Protein: N5-carboxyaminoimidazole ribonucleotide synthase
Amino acid sequence: ATWLGVMGGGQLGRMFVHAAQAMGYKVAVLEPVADSPAAHAADHHLVARYDDAAALQELAAQCVAVTTEFENVPAASLALLAQRATVAPSAANVSVAQDRMVEKKFFIDCAERSGVLPAPHLLIAADQDIAINADLIAATLLPGIVKTVRLGYDGKGQVRVRTLEDVSSAFAGMQGVPCVLEKMLPLAYEVSVLAARGADGTSVVYPIAENVHRDGILFTTTVPGPHVSPECALRAHDAALAIIEQLGYVGVLCIEFFILDDGSLVVNEMAPRPHNSGHYTIDACMTSQFAQQVRAMAGLALGDVRQHSPAVMLNLLGDLWFDTASGACTEPAWDRVLALPGATLHLYGKDDPRPSRKMGHVTFVASTLAEAQDSLHAACAILRIAL
Ligand code: ATP
Ligand code: MG
Ligand code: MG
Structure:
């Protein structure tokens, strides 16, 4: 058998494992936690830290190609793996996406080609950065958001600020780690673009997805996006293509954009892997984002990105397991959700639901977007999710 490897044992790894196995591969997962969604599905589980040299050697010896599902694996580990196996995306590409300042600088360097810029921002690495730039901050960056430069996700490591004092206390609250202050922009809506590039340099771009976040966490993804004009879709498509080519990337890459009230497009961040907003591709596209990752890393031709059905994806967070009044923990009524037209349920095999934890998602496809949205609304009524 031919083996593929994945760094990280979360749900993205699990869905990658399923796609790779469906194509005839065996999959090894390197993940420090013994009990993880991907490890249960994998053919081999290396229980080790992401920087464990012996485990990395073993993974690279066993697998022809290795990818990552977790964007914070040490870039040095990917570089080590690359001595013996194909690694996609590369350590260099992953490290750009791990650091918001490096990422924004890359977006600025790429702007001439991509046509998009990141939000106005400033590095805050020390208290002096606030004092020295007080006038600039007050004039151009407030109200804003303080984000940790590294390791944030689902809105964690972010504080909204209105005044200079807020900036100081937000920075103080981050335990001295470097932060970036970003101007708060008037978002009309948010979109993400999934792109993939093969080892042969061929690039493909999936249809633009419109995302709604709640409390910093992705709530729904709708494709085609009800607010996405053809011009906007074209600009986002072209920007994604320019970015993935400039990176010389191999694999699946997701790029998040803001559409402002005036219609302009701003690039927010990128994820060097399949992405939550791309889960709709499993049920609605010719090639899922996970099958595409397999193709890219294995040096195969990329698959068709065409969408065959309009789709809406709803994230299923741990909150759904808890009764708000009694706090009792019960399994939601999946049988009723699955009875809705066009529903496909994906649960990640996590057996300890916690509030805000991503437990699964459900995708509704139909021949029209309106029908898919009808099923979404019915599911929200069943699951008692306010719309
Ligand atoms: P993810 O889970 O997507 O990786 P994250 O923690 O890295 O999230 P961001 O994507 O940067 O954080 O921000 C989370 C959300 O906060 C965005 O999707 C958007 O809704 C809002 N947001 C972030 N930056 C800005 C901004 N500059 N102006 C307005 N809203 C913003
Ligand atoms: Mg992020
Ligand atoms: Mg984001």
